[in-house]
Every structure is written in structure tokens, then in C-alpha cells.
Amino acid sequence: MSKYHFNEIEAKWQKHWAKNHTFKAENLSEKPKYYVLDMFPYPSGAGLHVGHPLGYIASDVYARFKRHQGFNVLHPMGYDSFGLPAEQYAIQTGQHPAETTKVNIEGGVDKNGNEIEGYRKQLDRIGFSFDWSREVRTSNPEYYKWTQWIFLQLFESWYDKDSDKARSIEELRSIFSSEGNIHINAACDEGIAHFTASEWLEFSEIQKQEILLKYRLTYLAETEVNWCAQLGTVLANDEIVNGVSERGGYPVIRKKMKQWSMRITAYAQRLLDGLDKIDWPQPLKDSQTNWIGRSKGAIVEFKVLPPAPSKGRGDVNVSTDSKGRGAESAGYLTGNSAIIGTLLSRAKEMRKNPTKAESILWNELRTKKVGYKFRQQHPIDNYIVDFVCLSKRLIIEVDGEIHQYQLEKDGERELLLKEKKGFKILRFTNNEVINNLQKVVSKIESTLKVLPTGEDLGGDFLEHLEQVSIPPLGARGTIPVFTTRPDTIFGVSFMVLAPEHDLVSKITTSEQKEAVENYVEATAKRSERERMADVKTITGVFTGAYAEHPFTGDSLPVWIGDYVLAGYGTGAVMSVPCGDQRDYDFAKHFKIPIPNIFKDADISEEAYSDKENTTITNSDFLNDLSYSAATEKIIAAFEEKGVGEGKINYRLRDAVFSRQRYWGEPFPIYYKDGMPHAIPTECLPLRLPDVEKYLPTEEGEPPLGRAEKWHWDERTREVVSPPLEGSGEDIFPLELNTMPGWAGSSWYFFRYMESGKTESDSKRDEVFASKEALNYWKNVDLYIGGSEHATGHLLYSRFWVKFMHDRGFAPVEEPFKKLINQGMILGESAFVYRVTLASGNVKEDNSETIEILKKIPNFFISYNILREKGQVQNGLLSTISLRNKLLSIIREQSRDVSEDFLSQLVPFINDLHVDVSLVNIHNELDIEAFRNSREEYKEAIFISEKGIEINNNNEKYIVSREVEKMSKSKYNVVNPDDICEQYGADTLRLYEMFLGPLEQAKPWNTAGITGVHGFLKKLWKLYHSGPDESFYVTDSPPSEGQGEDLKTLHKTIKKTQEDIENFSFNTSVSSFMIAVNELTAQKCNSKDVLEPLAILISPYAPHIAEELWRKLGHSESISTAPFPKFEEKYLVESSKEYPISFNGKMRFTLELPLDLNKDEIETAVMAHEKTAQYLEGRTPKKVIIVPGKIVNIVG
RNA sequence: GCUCGAGUGGCGGAAUUGGUAGACGCGCUGGAUUCAAAAUCCAGUGUUUUAGGACGUGCGGGUUCGAUUCCCGCCUCGAGUACCA
Predict the structure, then answer these.
(1) Residues A546, A588: one domain?
(2) Do A463 and A481 share a domain, yes or no?
(3) How far, in Å, is the CA of A999 from the C1' of nucleotide B78?
(4) pLDDT tens digits, residue range A314-352?
(5) Please, are residues A1072 and A1123 in contact by the beta-carbon 8 Å criterion?
(6) Do residues A560 and A533 touch, judged by C-beta distance below 8 A?
(7) Mean pLDDT across the stretch A1089-1118?
(8) Bases in strand B with any atom closer than 7 Å to a protein CB
(9) What is the rounded CA–CA span in Å between residue A1059 and residue A969?
(10) B20: residue with closest CA to C1'
(11) Is the residue at A942 inside a domain?
(12) Domain of residue A580, CATH code
């Protein structure tokens, strides 16, 4: 006697597989390779729900199938274990993220005493065929050593556009030394000045480093970043959803900060082209294509005209460099020119309102009392410092009452001032200044003595800026714009700059200055979300400046407006109101002329943006040309005139790579003379230091600023404490930022290729993966995961792999050959309907009424009563009878509530999520369990389907159901452990596959699981048809003569193989059910049928298959048994049940031999009595016969 | 707004190249077994009907002997994206 004891069987085989390393992949194998990978999971503390393993089950089925087909399969698993949740948890509890991460993976007890199962155990219970010997965790130093190594390779590389690949910085240095940068065609920062070889050789090392930084593939630069104050960090574009942070949903603002960036834009075209070579879902490719956003057009420069004499004092000549940056040559102009207007007004105000300590100290510092010139409230870069001595590069800050503008301190501030701009910072508290002024002054004086002296070119900052803001002459100033419609250039009637544009402060006339500055400031304050929320409001300000049309010579007013984005193209547009709706709306709003340059186009209501059926007119030499002809002609004209050229523009921006957080890879970078330097690769990993708190420092530095030892000693090559004053010329501060989550996940698939550390042949300590391993496994053959990674992980890893390929570290250019997005499994939330009786006189609510209300119990009303009678209107229970019913229940219970009060009560109804574990498959609520779930429900009264109070077991309370995302907060989470416990892992695996197509989102319904569970029981029975359900399989040939069971088997082989290859897992589960139903009916017990059947089912239900395999007499695991071979001969039929249709409607079927030809079929059909019946005497006009398929009679 | 995807019984979903719509499972109904329940087994189950049929794959057209499948227009839902010049 033997029942299907799935718990025993599953535990037994899971142990067996682990012990025998059944699924270990070999790096040296005769077999062809196949690499199946799941997207890297983040090990969260919440554990798995049934939605998580869906993709893993699918990939496991495929991996097991490939093993049966004779492939050497690599199917690894590991953890993307750096990340925000562990760090947020660390901030709350003080626990080291490494510890919580370990518990989340391996299990244990968390700080609140909660038992945590751990990811690994949960995964093991489902019977995956992972090769755990190759596991990786991104937060292990052994792993992130190589993440840092790859970062340094990017740092030591530049992108050569001519050979279209990344090359080493050493090669760039040697090109510079031999020919300067004139012939270099690189992906680099804009506006790098040209230099010759001899000039290069003359440069100081710092200057050289500064220039090289502009070419490196990862570089440090001032960029507009997405700053999230609540998370205390910057975010990448893909980490922002609808203008708020993806994690936590906090607001995000645009901000300029010095950050590490990755020059992914260098790869824009290759990332686009590569999409054609990979087998990915079209929507995913589309979203990458959109994200890269290639558009073809032209770049044109418009000259800025000198202001008209009447309009101002246009005689101050300030030189501008190619980026339009003026004034920066003066040593005291240390503020960031882009936001100087804002800084300026803040500085002014702060000078007017000094704190007590500030004014005391200023008295001691002003007019060179200490021997050096100090400045008060002075802008440096993006900040305003309290006092600064520029010649000594000494900043003095007084802490305490903080100016309100400085409340939003940020992590970069001190780092930037101290380590990148080379300032020394002295910090005093208000108390020290007020109570111990003498000590403070002498500290300042002694510090001044030791510091080297630089220059402070006189003049006052504020006064100077007054002058600078007078518009410079436009002789060298131009506004470059990008346009996809260069053919419409004669329709330009104005220009618009982004408010953040560098030129804004340069060209604004004094008349317009105030309006412009107000506008710029207002725009900067608006969050991205606000800007998105109202795209309809048209705003903008005229700068007072004019630009010259390159062909007509017309003066075009230059505006600023926030519909122009600083980050796209050049941050400026030539506005063609007749052809672009946004320009049209802007022109209409500000009453700017709208010239029409399209023949026969009506632009009275809206812009005419059609390209294809367009004829250009009013456009000089472009008249009567089509869009394409005009475009070609005008670009030639641009080039001839030297005002522009054809250009391809991408929406893709360089990816910000710094995070002001603790739990990430440290950058292997230290700062010397303000320039970043790489730590020698031999010294990696640079380990994450311990800190006593995971928050930013008081100065707003990232958490790493709290580490005691976080300086690099060049001489001893180790991490050391900061140098003492006057010593340690070899000791430099290390970078305080850490890398983002996508750093570790951009290359992990390569790490799996190398054998695990415990293997004798492992080279994991020497290389990120050995050449042999990389060349054998190449890339991932099948990658399964969610579509949420479309523009993050999947784009960044493609970028890194292309880079690694360029530099010869990887043999392939694309990481993932085939990719499948599994759909989400949704939860079926359950709702109960609670009626609360509240006093109708809400305003008179007082503690007395509240006391009385407390005596009134909660009512819960069964769903169908409400549904059927439509009793809910705006949250109010509308039926009086029901209300009276509730009141009478209260009276019956003789609660101490006056009749008068009762009559005032108004019932409110709301639906509440109820834990799905308290509801059975018939949607009946377990009332007792529900009462016990919360104190406030203890006395609740339930109204049944029949509308009466429930006080026995015959009455039912029915909940309503709704499909929602599965989440703890919705109480609809189904835990796979529970399913395994109750039905077994094989049932879980089958059911997840059976639910529906892998790619589709589908609701989980635990009730349906009995179907597949019943199937497994039937399967087991099929092999146990002996006396007392003993194992019974015979060697006798399959049901002699009939061959019905072989037909069933081969039909199933064919279907299963086709289905797996098409990733149509749900239909193959159906075909197993059909097979087992048929074989059971046939009373099949033949080994020739049942043995192959076990292999067919093994990828889906490996435990039961392994057990049956053992019972069939095999000592080896079923996992590598060859997949049964399909043989057509068993499916050959001799006759066909023909559907006979009349005018396309099937009326009856007729069994006929398959070897009949058309004429014979027609004769047979026409002779049939039913045919005559359906024809009702008519003569058929036509008889369509498709032999083997159908017969259709028309007439 | 734009891009992509999807609409089939009470539910999850099948249907290969245009050829018997609703496979398989859940649920439901009836029956067997049982003291009873669970489990198991058997039968039925798109709607409608005057029991012959009629109608049925989001809606309206079209192509075809024949359309869930192909074409045109529309509606609804979901996902991505967000002024990209």
C-alpha cells in the first residue's frame, strides 16, 4: 500500500540532490552549453509570496528540459544584496545592513524577535535545480572587489568615435603627447579647448588630470541630478516614477551637484543597433528604443545681437568661452554662474540679517584685522559660506542657528569645498564665538599662518555681478539649437532657452533682469512632479535680448520658458509656431507673430505638424520643396555658411553613478589636489568601513564621512585615519559616495560562469571570471524576469558588457540572447463591509457622544445583501429597513443607549481588507478567527446572507473579492511555504505554470490548486495499480494490438516538447492531465509508456518523477535521462471524423477513411441522409472539401 | 497625448497555417459511496428556445465557401512614457 506522500518524497529528493550536487554545471564538458538565468533577486525581509517564484519555476522547467535534451546547463542563483531597504532598516534599528541581509538570506531572528525563514530555505523548498556552488552576493567584498575593478577600467578608458569603441586612457595620453587633442574624435564633455602636443607636455599634472577627466568613461562632473531629500540621495532617471522616487514615493527635485557619471551616451547608437540582434519581447525593445530616443535633425547657431543702444549700457565687454561662461576667470568669482542670481540674492539677505555670533566674528575679521582679507556670506560653487579668506582658501563656518536658506544642507557640500575645491574649513559653534571669542580668533590666526598664500584679486563680488549682468556683446556669443525640422527655419519667429541655460544670465538686459531672475528662481523651486502636473499652463519671460536669423537676418526675440528642457539637445529651441504645437501655444499666449511657411495649410487653430504632405513656402530658396528635399538642402546651406550641420541627437543622458548612501560599493577613488585618483587594482577590494550611524554627518556628508579611518595612504597603500596637522603628505581623503544598486547587477552573469570558490579549479580570487569560462559560456541563453527592469538594469548591463567587450574583457557584446518577461501574479483581496453607526450631529461631537458611540458594536454585513440591493450610496447605507434592523439588534442587546440618541444615528459603510487566510474557497469568512484577529472586532455583529444576525454555524458571512497587486498591506499574500506544506512543491510548480501564459498577469486563486493536486494523485495511482495500491508496472508490451496508450504517449511527447520550446507551459500541463486521464481509462501499466511519461513530467514535477524513476528501477537521477523521442508512426490515423458544414455552419460529423479523395468524400457526404435533410431540397452551388479537414456545402 | 499589449462561459484559460469555438482545471448541479463529513468516483454544465433550431469570441463594417484568427473604423482595460524641439 502506498499513498502519494508528497512531503516525504520532496524532502527526500531535495536532500539527495543537495548531497550529490546533482545540478552542478561543468566548465569542461563535451555537451553543448546552455545558460538559464533568473533576474537577480533582492533579498527583502518580507520573504517570498507565490508571485516571486513564477519566473524561477519557468526557468527551472526549461533548465531541466535542456538537461534531458543533453545540454550542460548553467542555472545559478544569487542575491543583489546591496540596496536601500536594508539601509533604511539599519537607520531605524541601528543594525548593520550586512547582518540583516544575511538573516534575510539565510534565516534567523531579527531584532524584533521575528523568526525569519530566509530566502534560501524558501527557494530550496520549491525544488529548484540551481547550482548553488556558484552563488554570488553583491555585498560580499569578494564580489564587489570586481565591481570596483570594472569601475576602474571605466575610469581608465575613453571612447574613440572613429574606431567606435572604448580604448585605454594610456593610449589617449600618448596621442596627446604626440599630436595634442586636435584629431581626437571622442565621446567627451563639451567645450574642451584644443591643445597641441607641446602644450600638453607643458601642462601640470593637475591640469592633465582635469582634461583626462573630461574624456573618461566614468567621470566626475557637475550635473543636474535628481535629488531626493527624504532618501538623502540622488537617483537615476529610471529610479523615478511619475516624478517621485520609485522606492518610498518621495518628491524629487532637480539640482546641480558634482557627481560620478557613466558615459553611457557614448554607446547610444550601439545600444540601439544591438536590439536587432537579440530575441527580446517587442515592448521591452520599444521602451529601450524610446529611452535612448534617437532623433535626426540639425544643429544651428543663432547669433546673439548686441542690445539696441537705447536699451542699455551695452558697452561692457565680458569674454565668454564656448559654453558661454563669462567672468569665471576672476579669482573671487567663485560661485556657480548658473545659479548665481539666486545665490546672490540669498547672500545679500544673509548679510543683512546676520546671527549674533556672525556679527561678533565679522567685527574681528573685517578690514584685514587678522592680517588677511575676509569676505562675508560669499558664494562658492553652489553654496554660501559664512566667511572666507580667498587668498588662504580658508572657510570659517559658524554653526547653530542656521539661515533658513541653508536648511537643505546636502552631502556634497563639505566634500566639495574641502576635497575638490581645496578649501580648508574651520568650524565654530555659536557658543564658542560668543563666549570665547579670543580663542576663536587665535585659532583663525594660527591656521592662517600655516596655510600657503594664493591670490585674492580685489573688488567686491556683489558689485562685480551688478556689472556682469549687463548683457555682453554677442560677437562671439551664439545660441546653438537642435531641431528635427531644419526645413522650417524660415518659420522661426522667436527663440526660447531653458531657464537653467548658462546664457540666460549673460544675455538678459537690465530692464528684464528682475523678471528673469524671479522666473528662474521660481522654476528651480518647482519639483519635477509639479512641472509635470501642469503642462498646460504656459509660462515664460522675455530676456530683452535678440538673436539674428542666420538667413533672413531678422531679429528674433529670445525668451526663456520651462517648456524647454535644459537636458535635451542644447537646452534651447528655435521656435517655429506654425509647425510645432508647443511653440504655437507659446506664441499665441505671448502674442508673438506666427508666420506660415506651409503651402495651403490652415494654422488659424493649431500648428501644422505634418511632415509627409508638406510643401514649404515663404522660405526663400526652400520654396516649393517637400520636407525631405528641403531638409537636405537647408543642411547643405548650414554647412556652407558655417552656421550648422546635420546631427543625430539622443534623449539618453549619462547615468549618474554616485549615491549618498552607506550600503553600496565604495568607490576605489581618493582625492589629491582636488583631482580623483584610482586606488591600485592590486589593493582591491576597498572594504566598506564601519560607521556608528547610517545617517549623513552633521555637515551633510554621506554616511561614509562618519568612518574613523577613511583616508588613503599612497605610501603604505592602505586605508588610514585622517592625517594630523602638519604631517601626512601622502594621505588623502577617500570618496564618500557609494555606487548605485545597478553597479553590482550589471555584470553578475559573468561571475556565475566561473566555478564557485569551493571548487578546486576556481579562479574567483584572481579574475572576475576566467577567459576559459567566459569563452565557454559566452552569454545568457535564456533570461527570465519582470519588465520593471526594462530601462534600468537591462540597459546598464548591455552598456557594461559592450564596454567590457571593447576592452577585451568579455567575448560577447550582448549579455542576454533571449529574454522573457514573466507576468505578475496578482492577489485576490477579500473585503468585509463594516457599518459604523455615527451620530448624525457631527458638529456636536463631544466626549460624551463618543462614550455612547463606543457602546455600539461594529456591524459587518454580508456582501451579497449589499450587492443585490445596491444599498450603498456614497458610503451611506441607503435602506431604511436595514438600518432599523441594526437598531433593533442594539435594543435587543439592551445596551445603555437612549432611544433619542439611536434615532440620530447615521450608518456609514466602508469596505475593509480582510486577511485572505480567514476566508475559505467559497468566500465564507471564518467569523471566530476574524473576531480574534483584532480586539475591536471581538464584539462585532455579523449579518448573514439572509439578512439576520449570525449566531450559529448555518448562517454564512460572504466576503467580496477583488483582484489587486499581491502585497502585505492588502492582506492578500499567499505564502509558497504554506502551499508546499499543504499540497507539495510539485503541486505548486504545476499550478503556477498552469495558471496561464507566463508573460501575462493573472490572479492567484488558491481554490484552483486542487485540480493539479488531484492530477498528481492520479499520476501516482497510475503507477500504483497493484493490489493495495502497490507499485505495479509491467514489462509486457503496451496494450497489445490497440496501441492506444502509445498513441497517448507520443501525442503528449510531441505536445510537451513543442510547448516547452514555445514557453507555453500552461498548455503542456493540460496535456499531462489529458494523458493521465486517458492512460488511466486505458488501464495502462506498461513500462514502455510509463517510463517515458515520468521523464516528460520531470521538468514540472521533479520530485514525484524522481521517486517514480527510482521505483522503476533506476539508480541514477532522472535529471539527465534523455527526453523521449517522438515517433510519428504512433499517431497515424486511418479515418477522420469530418465536420460537415452548410454555409459555414457545422451541422453534423461523419467518420470517413482518410485515404478518400475529394470526389469520394463528396459522394459519401451527398449520400448521407442528414445532408438531404439540411439541404431541404436545394441543390448545392458548391461543395468545398479540404481532405483531412472539413467539408462545407454551399447552397 | 504618444507607444505597446489585451478584450473568448460564473472564474483561470485552450483553439497549430483562416477549417468542429470554449480543450484542461476551478466553481456549480445531480448521483454513487459514507452514520456523517472529508476524500474518491460517475454524469451534466456558453446563452436562449416553441427542443427543430436560433444566437454566441468588446462594438460596427469588410474580405472569404468559411473569420476568435486577415483588413478598416471605433470602444474599454492594462503597461510604459511624459513638453524630447
Answers:
(1) yes
(2) no
(3) 13
(4) 333 333 333 333 333 334 556 655 555 556 656 666 666
(5) no
(6) no
(7) 95
(8) 3-5, 11-15, 19-21, 23-28, 39-41, 53-54, 65-67, 78-85
(9) 37
(10) A1139
(11) yes
(12) 3.90.740.10
Domains identified in chain A, total number: 5
Q: Per the annotation, does A843 bind a ligand?
A: no
| Backbone torsion region of residue A894, taken as left when φ is above 0, otherwise alpha when ψ lies between -120 and 50, otherwise beta | left
Rounded to whole angstroms, the distance from the CA of residue A953 to the C1' of nucleotide B35 is: 21
pLDDT by residue (tens digit) across A9-26?
Answer: 999 999 999 999 999 999
| Same domain (yes/no): A384, A435 | yes
Span CA (A992) to C1' (B26), Å: 14
Give the containing element (helix H, strand E) for A65.
helix A53-68
Judged by DSSP in three states, A728 sits in coil
Q: How many residues does chain A have?
A: 1195
Paired with A1034 in beta bridges are A1086
Q: What mean pLDDT comes out for the span A734-762?
A: 94
Q: How far apart are CA A261 and CA A1098, in angstroms?
A: 48
DSSP string computed for A1050-1103: HHHHHHHHHHHHTT-HHHHHHHHHHHHHHHHHTT--BHHHHHHHHHHHTTTSHH
- Provide the percentage of residues in chain A whose pLDDT is more than 70: 86
Q: Is the Cβ–Cβ distance between A906 and A823 less than 8 Å?
A: no
- Under DSSP, the state recorded for A980 is H
> Residue A773 is placed in which grid cell?
569560462
C1' of B56 to CA of A1149 (Å):
21
- Which single residue has its CA nearest the C1' atom of nucleotide B80? A287
Same domain, A378 and A478: no
Angle between helices A793-806 and A141-155 (to 10 degrees): 70
**What are the backbone angles phi and psi of residue A835, rounded to the nearest 5°?**
-110, 125
For residue A229, give every residue at least 6 positions away whose Cβ sits within 8 Å of its Cβ, in sequence order, or none. A250, A251, A253, A408
User: What letter would DSSP give residue A679?
Assistant: P
What DSSP string runs through A104-130?
HHH-EE-TT--EE--HHHHHHTTT---
Residue A1029 — left, alpha, or beta (φ > 0 → left; ψ -120 to 50 → alpha)? left
> Which nucleotide does the CA of A1001 lie closest to, via C1'?
B78
Question: How far separated are the first and last CA of chain A, in Å rounded?
Answer: 63
Q: What Cα–Cα distance (Å) separates residue A519 from each residue in A163, A187, A567?
A: 45, 34, 18
Return the pLDDT at A1039.
55
Burial of A1171 (0-12, 13-18, 19+ CB in 10 A): buried
Q: Are A1120 and A1105 in contact (CB under 8 A)?
A: no
pLDDT of residue A463: 35
Q: What does the pLDDT read at residue A953?
A: 66
Residue A1117, domain CATH? 1.10.730.10
Say yes or no to pLDDT of A1 above 50: no
Q: Go through A635-673 and write b for each residue having 16 or more CB atoms within 10 A of its CB, e for each that does not.
A: bebbeeeebbebbebbbbbbbbbbbbbbbbbbbbbbbbe
d(CA A603, CA A491): 12
Question: How many other CB atoms sit within 10 Å of the CB of residue A502?
Answer: 17
Q: Give CA–CA dist A779/A815, Å, rounded.
A: 5
**Could you tell me if A458 and A476 lie in one domain?**
no
pLDDT digits (tens, 9 = 90+) for A36-70: 999 999 998 888 899 999 999 999 999 999 999 99
Sole residue written with cell 588662504: A392
pLDDT average, residue stretch A153-167: 96
Between A358 and A971, whose confidence is greater?
A971
What b-and-e string marks burial along A1178-1189, b requiring 16 or more CB atoms within 10 Å of the CB?
A: eebeebebebee
The parent domain of residue A940 ranges over 826-965
Which residue, among A218, A222, A277, A300, has the nearest Cα to A255 in the 3D structure? Answer: A222
Q: Is the pLDDT of residue A311 over 50?
A: no
- Domain termination site, one of A467, A492, A514: A467
pLDDT at A56: 95
The whole-number pLDDT of residue A657 equals: 92
Q: Which of A632, A650, A668 is the last residue of a domain?
A: A650
